[in-house]
Amino acid sequence: MTRAGIFVENQLALLGIRYLLDAEADIQVAFAASTPFAVAPGSVDCLVLDRGLLGELPPAVPAARTVLLTRGPEPGSERTGATLPLDDAPLLLVDAIRRVAAPGPAPVRQGVATLSPREREVLGHLVEGCTHDQAARRIGISQHTVDTYVKRIRSKLGAHNKAQLVRAALTIP
């Protein structure tokens, strides 16, 4: 049995995800909330997290493996398909939870909890498919500064390329 926790801001999405997961025989919803709170280690196998709440997670939360949700592309933005939009088929979410919560060793890295708020912001833009230049313009900093943040993030998450970086962000252990 996979124990899942849900942190999603939108109440309708929160209720829909809970309803979807409650219908699965092998997934038990441990909690569903619109505001993150500290989660006891080992209390959940997987955390379903709204990308907008990534920066609000208490340090104890990233002990679980995480499925990161987004609301879809902003008008005019490029999209790489690296994140799981809320409007995609519900079966994709259930499949993602099963894959993330599957037994096996978690990747060895320090984790997203060690990232600074600015590093989390940069990472969020990269997960949405932004280039370094696009992220820099959205945040109001230089592309060189974004490059520096990305190097630090890769080091902290143990990612050697952008694909590993995005995967690390989407499967927070």
From TrEMBL:
- Keyword ATP-binding among record annotations: no
| Residue ranges annotated for the HTH luxR-type domain, each copy included | 108-173
Q: Which organism is it from?
A: Streptomyces nymphaeiformis
Gene Ontology terms for molecular function = DNA binding
Q: Does the keyword Endoplasmic reticulum apply?
A: no
Instruction: Kindly list the biological process annotations in GO that this record carries.
Output: regulation of DNA-templated transcription
Keyword set, alphabetical order: DNA-binding, Transcription, Transcription regulation
Q: Which PANTHER family match?
A: DNA-BINDING TRANSCRIPTIONAL ACTIVATOR DEVR_DOSR
Q: Which Pfam families match?
A: GerE
Q: What is this protein called?
A: DNA-binding CsgD family transcriptional regulator
